[in-house]
Amino acid sequence: MASYYDDHSLEDPFKARKKTNNSYGGSSFNPDLSHFMPREETESTSSSPSSRSPSASGPDVGDFRRLAEMFGAFREREEPLGDEAHQEFLDNLITQLMDEAGASGKHGPPPAAKSFIRDLPFVPQKDLKRDEACIICNENFQENDSKAGVTKLPCKHHFDRECIVPWLELHNNCPACRAEVPSDDPEWNRKRREAELAKYAAEAEIDQDWMYS
Fold first, then answer.
1. 127-150: per-residue pLDDT in tens?
2. Model's pTM, two decimal places?
3. In the chain, N or C: fewer CB atoms in 10 Å?
4. Domain ranges across the chain
């Protein structure tokens, strides 16, 4: 599948960087996620707009681009391993993020609710399969020494918290199956209520037709 850069005849910045910088060639890559993590999970004391997390000021174009770069680094690391399916998955996420950045974040789903992100459950190692890996970074949970730990979404997909929180700060859905999670966005909640009412009305009409048929 062609990437965002191929479709737009642009040079892939992640591949270009690889030619001059091999800093991601090791067995482990830990990007700086302090910009994305909720304020209570960071020790940053800066009050400048550029250092505030999306949970404090709302996502902007830079947030989408930074997350695309983070996923690009994961994809770059995957290339020598030959996992084409995972590379394509990351490429699709990067394409979406770049498109959203181009639209100034006005298109696409809203961020997940702050309370939902704050209350993400911690999954103990004993509840994880030995060969299970994070869907985003593809690192084995048993070998990952991240202090942030592992979490899961209501759809049952598991992720490193360091990987899924930045995504949820910008999208109220699972990056794997697109199942939605709660959002604080008023417009999204209004449309969801309208959809639920329409569904109930349709079901009631079907039940009524069945009774009198």
1. 999 899 999 999 999 887 777 899
2. 0.69
3. C
4. 4-182, 186-213
